[in-house]
Design a protein that fits this description.
It holds the Pfam family Cytidylate_kin. Keywords: ATP-binding, Kinase, Nucleotide-binding, Transferase. One of its GO terms (cellular component) is cytosol. The chain is built from 9 helices and 8 strands. It is of the alpha/beta class. The protein folds into 2 domains: 124 residues, P-loop containing nucleotide triphosphate hydrolases (Rossmann fold, 3-Layer(aba) Sandwich), CATH 3.40.50; 85 residues, Rossmann fold (3-Layer(aba) Sandwich). A hairpin with a 2-residue loop joins strand 3 and strand 4. Helix 1 packs across helix 9. The longest helix has 18 residues. It is globular, with a radius of gyration of 16 Å. Bound molecules: 2'-deoxycytidine-5'-monophosphate.
């Protein structure tokens, strides 16, 4: 797990702007981009497709080891079948927290994430445990956050729906992600905290890129 020198670890709760900011940052820094949330969603999708109960830890653990995830900047194929849209759908979003709390799944995906970065010599990697667990020696660690209302409004702008309901869903998922035993969502000791609530994407990306370049 050594050469994570060129890693920018971006963690934070849903709706903090992680994906948009990480993608743009990767372009600016000319580094590859990895969305680790999409990998947890991919395993969840594999479970739902094959009729495996997402809360059946041992069945999902088996599935995680055997499922082929082919991830690129704008698509995810699960066992050769395009799952790009499915992984953002309601069914996967509802079930993914249980899959992400499964320690065997986390162990498997953590190893894949490290190999992915090692093969490419670095990357902008976003998730919930990137700075704390996956790449504790990342060159730069960023914890993105935003107010609950702004986060809910952003989700509504992306996927539609009722802002109060989405705010409740986000709060529930945050709670699950930050109270689980294995690799909970947590700010790393030496990360920089960036509140994106009232800031433009360009502005945040510029700030992080400047810190990265030193
Ligand atoms: O970022 P996202 O909403 O696509 O993440 C989907 C789920 O996966 C969410 O419940 C958090 C979880 N996750 C995680 O536990 N660890 C990561 N490194 C990335 C995502």
């Amino acid at each position: 797990m050594t050469p994570s020198v060129n890693v920018v670890a971006i963690d934070g709760p849903a709706g903090a702007g992680k994906s948009t900011i990480s993608r743009q940052l990767a372009r600016v820094l000319n580094l590859p981009y990895l969305d680790t949330g999409a990998m947890y969603r991919g395993i969840t999708c594999a479970a739902l497709r094959s009729g495996v109960d997402p809360t059946d830890d041992s069945a999902v653990a088996h599935l995680a080891v055997s499922t082929i995830l082919d991830i690129s900047d704008d698509a995810l194929f699960v066992d050769g079948v395009d799952a790009t849209l499915d992984i953002r759908g309601e069914a996967v979003t509802r079930a993914v927290s249980s899959v992400a709390a499964n320690s065997e799944v986390r162990r498997e995906l953590r190893e894949r994430q490290r190999s992915w970065v090692q093969e490419r010599g670095g990357g902008v990697v976003e998730g919930r445990d990137i700075a704390t667990v996956v790449f504790p020696d990342a060159r730069l660690k960023v914890f993105l956050t935003a107010s609950p209302l702004v986060r809910a409004q952003r989700r509504v702008a992306q996927i539609g729906g009722d802002v109060d309901q989405i705010a409740r869903d986000i709060a529930e998922r945050d709670h699950k992600d930050s109270t689980r035993t294995d690799s909970p969502l947590r700010e790393s000791v030496n990360s920089i905290l960036v509140d994106t609530s009232n800031r433009s994407i360009d502005d945040v990306v510029k700030q992080i890129a400047e810190v990265f370049r030193g």
